[in-house]
Each structure stands twice: as structure tokens, then as C-alpha cells.
Amino acid sequence: MSQPSLRSSAALGAHLWLVYAFLYVPILVLILLSFNKSGLPTSWSGFSFKWYAALANNKAVLSAALNTLIVALSSTFIACVLGTLLALGVELRRKGENKGHVADTLLMAPMIIPDIVLAIALLSFFNLVKMGLGLHSIVISHAVFNIAFVCAVVRTRLKHFDYSILEASIDLGASWFTTLRRVLLPAIFPGVLAGGLLAFTLSVDEFIIAFFNSGSGQASTTLPMQIYAMIRFGVTPEINALATLVMLVSITALLASQRLNKAPTHHE
Amino acid sequence: MSSLHADRKLSAWLLTPGLGWLALFLVLPCLLVLVYSFVERGAYGGIEWTFTLENYQRAFDPLYLGILLKSAKIAALATLFAVLIGYPAAYAIARAPRHRQPVYLFLVMLPFWSNYLIRTYAWIVLLNREGLLNKLAATLGYSGDPISLLYTESSVVLGLVYNYIPFVILAIYSSLSRINGELWEASRDLGASGWMTFRRVILPLSVPGIAAGSVFVFVLSIGNFITADLLGGKQVQMVGNLIYAQFLTARDWPFGSALSFILIAIMLLLLFVQALLARRAAEGKA
């Protein structure tokens, strides 16, 4: 393949590294500061875990973390079940044909609607049906976009699926249910898990929709809401430590998700 | 082979719970917002079930129109910078050895998966009066008062570019990577210079990627609430902040609903234009 001239390709390479610096320097600074003894952003006064220790004693942060875990696990569970069924439904119907489906539009919507619009729409709805707000309303709301994401990941997995295996199973006398459970599910399970991990990180990080639909009070404060409050009302150095931990969780989940999703290509 | 009918029945069963959830908690709430946008506000923040177009008229009051236009301007600037910075980066990745490309792309997307609030907060640390950039300026010999780089339109644009540039790079990369390598050589062999090849062959073929990336950044930026709130402070109000205020402080839900629908309308329009561009590009290839 012919390459662009040496000079312009060097410039392109340099540009790419500058973009990486732009993306990573702010995050790295934050991580570094979380270990700064003085807690000040401007002077380094020695390495210390004291802000992490402070976090461990911060009741508000701990209860918010627990709430986030409850919300993320519940909404991910709902999304894994409903999202996988949806993906199967859409792909079984299309099977081979490259035809659009009404569900396609419906599944795109939660990914592109501005968060704030979805947030107020759900708030209006819960208010109209007189449903009290709390962790349960956040779970319902998060499941809306999580279903779409799980479904998208599972569908990608199904694209490479050989449907003749299903027909073989049926022809050999297995019922549809057995075929789904014993043939299809094992094949798509890594996809479901990958989608689930993605959904989990999305839920852990989601702020606006949770903020509008949590009701008032500490009882249903999630971690991003707690972080927002810490940023808005007095920045304490603890937030750097908290930010570092939250990033660690999301990135671990993401890496696991990527790994799971990649696995089959090695064999095929 | 199993009958098509059985497939359809099974598929309907599989679709029902998920689509039901989305119908109940996505479609209905959005329809409700549409309805609210056409009714009057009640005396104490409630809803008065009388039809009115006033909420939409109010959105075009100079005060609110100004905020809408400013949001559009900020979103447009963020889009412009994201494309200008993102295009060469996507191009560099697309021209890198094939086995390295996934790693490069992954490094672009990784920050995107960390918390949005945290990524925005990182810029507060860098930009504020006691922040690192001021410190750096002082070390380099700047002796004036520290400058607050926060709470300006520029800091909001910066925050948006920072948060959404991964999308642009990904979108442009995916259209660039589809361009056949032989096309480059053909253009070269026919005597075109590197620049000519780029301008007449590569750039036009990457238009769908640019369009997709741009629409994404613009749509996400114009409806953004957090960036303007944290990096713009009280000085920079965007539509998102206005909607927020209508629902949580002013308690004028009908007006907030109308603003939301204006956002959705802008979004749909742009997605439509982008779909048209993508289709034109696809037809051009065929």
C-alpha cells in the first residue's frame, strides 16, 4: 500500500499522540492527586492513602455506593433478560433477510434521546401515575437504556450465529424450549454477559436520569449524585480518590466486556 | 425446516416483554411530554388541562431564543473542533498497520467509558484559579493575577470536545477504514499528488463518517446539561439547564416540555439529514 509522504505521516502520528495526551492527561492528573498528601491540586507533598481512608469513613459515600450497586445490578438483570429476548425475537424474525424492524427504531431511541429529556419524561410519567420516587424508579429508568444496549450487543453476536444448528436440533426432535436453552443460550451467553457488563457500567455512571427520578433525600442518592454534590458544593480532596475508584470499576467492567465479546473470533 | 408461522409466533413472544417495557417507560413518557407541551401551567406548578400554543411561542421569546441560539452555537463550535481535531487522528489510525488499529481505537474509546461527571470535574481541577494551568503559567514567568479559565463559553466548548471526541474519531475511522487501499494506489498511479488524492478521493468518501460523527456531537452537545452546569456556571446557560430549571425550580412543566420537544425536533431533523447523506453515499458506491 502506498504511504503518504514520510513527513506528513510523521505529523499525523504526532497529532494522534497529542490527542491521546489531551484525552488522558486530565484523568491521570486526577489519579495522581488522589494520592497527594496535602490534597491540594497545585503542590505535591508526598504519597499518601489518607484520602482513600477518609472515603472509607464517609457514611454518605458508602451509602451512595451501596445504592448504586443495587440500582446497577437490578437494572442490569432486567436488561439482560428483556434485552436478550428482544434480540432473539428481532433476529429470529429477520433470519437472513436484511429487512428493518419497528423494534430497530424503538431500540435506537434510548441511545440518542438527550438524557435530560428522558429524565423529565420519566419524571412526568411517574408523577402522573402517582408512583413514588426512590431506588425502584431509578432501576426502571436505567433499565430503559440498558435494554437497548444489551439487545444491541446480543444482536451483534447473533449476526454470526448459524441458524441451521437450531433447525438441526428441531429436526432431531428437540422442542423449541430445549433448543433455546441447550443450543442457543450457551452460544450467545458470552454476548449476554458482555452486554450486561456494559449495562452495569452505564448504570453506575448515569447521573441525570437518576437525579430527576430519585425523589429527595439521602436514602436514594446514587454515587454519581453524591459526586455531583461534592463537585458543586465544596471540592474536597476525597473526590479525587472516589473518582479514581469509580473509574477503576467502570474500566474493569468494560475490559471484561470487551474480552468476552472478542472470544469467539479466535476460533472462527 | 420449521414453519415460518411458528417462527413468527415465537418471535412475538420473545419481543413482547422488552417492547412492552420500552412502550411503557419510553414511548408513553415521551408522548406525555408532548401532551404537556400543549397545555397550560397550573397555579402551583401543576398542569391545567387547557390546550395552548403559548409554551412554544414563549420558547421564541428573545430571552429564550437567545439561549437556544447560544446552545446551538456552542454545540456547533464543539462539533467543528471535534471534527478538526478528530479527523487527522482517525486518519492516522486508519493508516496505521492493521493489527495495531484495534488497540489505537480502544485507547480512544477508553476515557469515554469513565464517568462523565468525573471527566468534566478533571477540567475544573486543571482550569480553575488555583488550578494547574495557572500554576504552570506562573512557573513559566506569568506574573499577573491568576485567571479563571472556567465559566466561559470556551470552557464549555472545551469540555464538550473533550467528552465527545471519541465518537467523532470512531465514526470517521469507520468510514475511512472502508476505503479500499487500492483506491489510493490507483489515484497515485494516475498521477494525482498525495494532497489531490486526499481531497478528491478520500475526503468525499469519508463524508458519511464526518456527518455521523458531527450529528452525534451536535445532538449530544445541544442537549447537554452537566458540562454547561459545571464548566459554564451561571454565566453559560444552555437549553439543558433551562429544561432543568423548568422542572426542578420554576416548576413550569409545560414550558419545559415544549423546550424538550424543540430539542427532539432538532435532533430528528439532523438524524434525517445524516441518513440522507449516508444513503446518497451508499448509492454513489453501488
UniProtKB/TrEMBL annotation, chain A:
> Topology in the membrane?
Multi-pass membrane protein
Task: Family membership, please give it.
Answer: Belongs to the binding-protein-dependent transport system permease family. CysTW subfamily.
Any stretches that span the bilayer, and where are they? 12-35, 69-90, 102-126, 132-154, 183-204, 239-256
Q: Which GO terms describe its biological process?
A: transmembrane transport
Per UniProt, the keywords (alphabetical) are: Cell membrane, Membrane, Transmembrane, Transmembrane helix, Transport
Q: Where is the ABC transmembrane type-1 domain?
A: 65-257
PROSITE patterns linked to this entry: ABC_TM1
Tell me the protein's name.
Putrescine/spermidine ABC transporter permease
Report which superkingdom the organism of origin falls in. Bacteria
Where is the protein found, in the record's own terms? Cell membrane
Question: Coiled-coil annotation: which residues?
Answer: none
Q: What GO cellular component term, any one, is given?
A: plasma membrane
